[in-house]
Amino acid sequence: MRGAMRFTTPLHRVVYYVLLVGLSASVALILAGSIAALASTGSLPERTLLWTQAFPSALAGEAQGLVSMGLFGILITPLAAVAATVLVSAWRRDWAGVLAGCGVALVMVVSLLLGGA
Amino acid sequence: MMLLLGYLALGVAAGILGSLLGLGGGVLIVPGLTLLFGLPIKTAIAASVVAVVTNSLAGSVVYIRKGFTHIKLAMILEITTTLGAVAGGMIAVWVSGRWLYGLFAAVALYIVYAMRRPPSGETADDPDGVLPAAFMDPATGCEVRYGVHHLGAGMAASTVAGVLSSLLGIGGGVVKVPIMCQVMGVPIKAATATSTFMIGITTATAAMVYYGSGLVVPALVVPVALGAVVGAQLGSRLGAKVQSKVLRTLFQVFLLFIAAQMAWRALGL
User: Fold this and answer.
1) Is B164 on the interface with A (CB under 8 A)?
2) Nearest-by-CA chain A residue for B227
3) Where residue B174 falls among pLDDT bands split at 50, 70, 90?
4) Extended beta strands in chain B, E state
5) Residue B229 touches chain A, beta carbons under 8 Å
6) B217-248 per-position pLDDT tens digit
7) pLDDT-derived band at B212, boundaries 50, 70, 90
8) Which residues of A touch B3 (CB under 8 A)?
9) B267 Cβ under 8 Å from any chain A Cβ
10) β strands within A2-92, DSSP E
11) What is the spatial distance between Cα B144 and Cα B187, in angstroms, rounded to a whole number?
């Protein structure tokens, strides 16, 4: 419904599409994998694959790979939104926005490393 | 199949509550999965963090399209919130759990008290301050213009919010929304939308760790997360139409519930 669109800035427009595409693609993969799993085994997979294994598995159309890629897609979409914020801010020469976005990205990477450790 | 439907219903409920009030929804999912379905706490938390990210994405898509979300403010506050959360994780080792519950109950009660009256700028144009922004409020049909006040104090308070959310294992929304409203003069609709967006970024980091450690069980996460998508869509559409006063009252009732729960634990009951 285009009449409902009320983007106030180009940043809103870009981040909106990043989130929409990320969420839609992820949900589509999860649904496809879930339907395939339910049709073949009658239940959903009990474990996820790491993305390095999930990607080829999803390409082969395997249920576990599709679900794992969908879940992984959901988790990286917010990171993509942060990256989009940095890029749009840089394009608009909004250096405070670039700094804030890079700060968030840095803190996320450090948290991820600490969490992983 | 009944289990799948149960998980789905829980996800829908968490999605509505989360996006309506700018919370993650984890505060409902974790007790729901452990108490209603008898699942181990770690499995429940792993499912919850993935559902919270999903909930945040679905809610943010609606809020950003409507122009409610203050993306730049979210980025600025996200830095201090996350730093606070890291500090909170370190402090948690040293502090007694009962003191933490008591502290949270006290903070929640203070927020309920402080939110009795709307801050200036919620009902009328108040474009003073930094990072000016505006959105069209569908409930009133008027454009709300506002600026962010006391950014430094808000960042400091967000650090405390990060510490508290990490110490107490709750989504930061319960603290971030009141800070944005009361300290920074951000209208509650913009505050809930901005909080919803921020929660997705914060929680995605934690969810990655759970995903990498194999704690994410698709058979559980998929129905909860898909339910959260549906719930978030319903909640964020409802949130856009509901009067700010109603939203504030809902938030206060929710905080009172949380405060009572925390006080209960602080007293060891």
Assistant:
1) no
2) A27
3) confident
4) 130-137, 142-148
5) yes
6) 999 999 998 898 888 888 877 877 777 678 77
7) confident
8) none
9) no
10) none
11) 8
